[in-house]
Structure formats: C-alpha cells, structure tokens
Amino acid sequence: MINRITLPTIKERRKLRFLVSWIRKGRNEGWFCQDCRPVTINSYKNYVKSLKQSGWKYECKEIYIKKKPVGYFDFKYKNNKAEVLGLYLDKRFKGRSIGLYILSWLLKYLKDLKIKKVVLDIYSHNLVSIKLCSKADFNLVDSKLEGHRKILVYELNLEAISENVIFARFHKAIAEYITKNLDLKGIKAILGAGSIARNFADFYSDIDLIFIVNNSFKNLKQLSGEHQLNEFNIDITVVSDTYLKQPISNLDSSLAQVIQESIVLYCQKGFKRFIKRIQKLPKIERRRKLISLIFELGWLGFVPKSWRGKYKYGYKWYLPHDLPLSRNFPLQGDYIINYALDLIFQILFYLNWKHPSSPKWRLVNSFSLSILLEI
Fold first, then answer.
1. Which of 221, 90, 230, 107 is nearest to 162 (CA)?
2. Element (H, E) at 20
3. Domains of the chain by start residue, with CATH
4. Residue 71 class from Cβ within 10 Å (0-12 exposed, 13-18 middle, 19+ buried)?
5. What is the Cα–Cα distance from 305 to 298, expressed in whole angstroms?
6. How many Cβ atoms from other residues are within 10 Å of residue 290's Cβ?
7. What is the rounded CA–CA span in Å between residue 35 and residue 27?
8. Quick check: 152 and 189 in contact, CB under 8 A?
9. CA angle, corner 298, sides to 295 and 304, nearest 5?
10. Rounded to whole angstroms, how far apart are CA atoms 279 and 273?
11. Residues 266-297: tens digit of each pLDDT
C-alpha cells in the first residue's frame, strides 16, 4: 500500500510530477501552506536539498491503492524529533480511514527510529486532520497565525508510548481501514479482538476480527479464515447473529470470551444493544461456572479448611491435596498443582464478571482484575 519516493532518475520523473500535482492540489484546496512561489519539480528538489543542508533527514512516500498512486505523505527528522510535513489523498479515497492508517504506520516507523517527539501543524479549519490527530493521541500545544489563518501546533510524546501499544494502534488502524473499504451488505457488526482489544501487539500478533452477519450474507467461505494484507495476517471469524441469540451457556466459551473483551469497529443502527447483551456475563452462567470450578478443585484435593472431611452441597470433601505424593507420583503432583492454579485463575475471572482469557493470555490479563473482589 505504501511505496517510497526517491529523488528521480529520468525514468522516475513521472513520480515527481504526481507529487508536484498533489502539492498544488493541497494548496488550492486550502490544506497546505499558501506559498506564493510556484511548485515545480526543481523547486521541490531545492526544498529537499535545503532540509538536508540544515541537518534534517527527509522522506517522502507515495500511497498506493490497488497498485495506483492516490496520494503522498512526507516528513523530516533529526535529534530524536520528527515533523510531519504533509499528507494528501485524492478526493476519491477520502473518508476511508486511509489517513489514520498512514499516520499509525508513520508513528510505528518513527518509533523504530528511536524518535521521541512528533510535531505537526494543522490549519484550524482542517477538522478532518484535527480529528485524526485526536485519534492518534496528539496534544494541542500551541497556535500561530499565518496571515489571516490560524495554525494549530500538535505534539505527541512518542517516548512515553510503548512499542507494543504503537503496534496495537497500527493494527486497529488497519482494521478500521478494512471496515471502511468493505461491502457491508449482510454484516451487522465488526468487532476488533486480540491485539486490538488488548492494546498490545508485536511482530507475531495477528489482526483478529469478528464479523457478525445475518442469514442473507453470501460470502461466508470467502471471508472466514486467514487473509493477508501487505505483511499482516488478518484472522477473520464469521458468526451468525442467529447463533448468538442463544443463551450464553450454549455458546462456545472461547468465542464468548473473545466477544466480551472485543471493541466495536462497526455496528448497524440499533444492534449495539444486542452486542452489549452478548458481552455481559449472565448471573446464572457465572454461578454455574463457579460451582463447577470449585467442585473440580475439590476433586483435586484443594478445598476450604472448614469444608474438609464434611458433606457440603452433596459432596464429601475429603481428598488430600498431596495425594499424588503419597502414591509416589511426584511429577503428577506437580502437574496437579499447576492445573489447580489455572482453575483458581478462572475462578478469579468469574468473580470479576469476566469470561476467563485463553490460556496464552490468562496470567497477564489477570493482572487487570480487581483485587478486592465483590461476590
């Protein structure tokens, strides 16, 4: 989707013609600085040369959609500071979350370069770019006048944001881009799960999406499963809204957990209440799960002291927790202790009105659970 522009050889001159035309359009539409000097290929080359003479490193990249150039963005950086200079998209491609995709990609790229602070200037009438900065957590730090027009100065402390959070935000931007450029016929909602919901991602993370569809949806086989977008792996789960209308106890437990922690990327009008119902753990289901887990712990020999050797809830709690050791199976005892700890973690999740996370994330996600539990 993104391709780099370099200073031209003769055969690359066409690329710079595109770039110059986009800068002119940006000025005419009121997004860029209204410089009285004409924009030409030579003036652009001189501008880049002056930046380099001032110690700045400069990069300019084309934006490609379906192998066709539709815009560009450029930026400069030195001494751990970067400045976004311009971003322009052809009118036909605006409103598709491409700007958020580009800015998220750029922040990840600058983070890899160890940049600590990112700055950009926006005209006060450019509400689209202001909204974009807000989504990316930029802060308004200053303002200045350019003739009769007001310029807002935005800044982002990139050093204060972890690499995993930057990566997760990029995943979310990709998910929003997919959502905005998809035929939504028959799709009732799109949920962001996994790295998007946890706000934690790295090189190994997939982009997990859940599509809730109605019975008229016809592209189930084509959409469901693994897909590639550039270097990213998109994992799409397609679920029928009819299936989700069942009682929570009838749903696949792993799916219920993923839906509960997910965030809504797209939702048909009036369908959000239905999603909230699915995400809420019913009181009866919570009680049933807690009883089942407590009985399983008792079967392993882990019981409250006051219950040991007594009949409680139709069961005699008498098995000792060190039974494998008395049977001379120390490795089995070690396994049972680990298994019992996992059951306890699941109990903690249910006490906090949450479905237990998958084993891969159960311990990490338990850190966010309430310490003072309300039963």
1. 107
2. helix 13-28
3. 2-161 (3.40.630.30), 183-279 (3.30.460.10), 283-366 (no CATH)
4. buried
5. 11
6. 15
7. 8
8. no
9. 110
10. 10
11. 999 889 888 988 889 999 999 999 999 988 99
